[in-house]
Amino acid sequence: MLQRQTMIYTELSPNPNSMKFVLNFELAPDGLTFDFPTVAATLEEGKASPLATDLFQFPFVRRIFIASNFITITKDDETEWEDVVYDVKKFMKIYFEQNHPVFAQKTIEKNTFVVDVNDSEIVGKIKKALDEYVRPAVESDGGAINFASFDEISGQVKVYLQGSCSGCPSSTVTLKDGIERLLKTMIPEVKEVVAEGV
Fold this sequence. Notes:
By secondary structure, the chain is an alpha+beta fold. Helices cover about 30% and strands about 25% of the residues. It starts with 7 loop residues before the first strand and ends with a strand.
């Protein structure tokens, strides 16, 4: 079996407890994201990840998020990144060069930006705006955003924030000053955007 050449570089995220580890190959199909807030979540059917399970063996790891070509790790408050980043990168390099799997064989997660035939016209517009204008910016910070629901009566859009966005001190500002303002401007029916499960 050929050994995979693995290059990893790190990027700071707006959340000081989250670090983005960027790899030179795809980890998940474009548009799919996998959020693991606990070690138990890494074993769930449909999103099981041996890689995430192993990363939780580091005692400072509190959350793992995997998307396209990066892994965002959120640590505890006590640990400093400069004390652990080398060990995490070394672990990942060995893991990938030994061709260990990122996901279990049957792992699949729904892409929430896919416009469904049952979606209303407004929901279709919201998903399209999130996918085109919001997702790329959020991913560049090591996170993800997924559509949860839209209430046509109140005009409230609910989204899921994942990765470095989850628990980030600036996520509320991003949500209200960025995402909410954009959606309200583009889609007049939208009156408010709130985050689920943050």
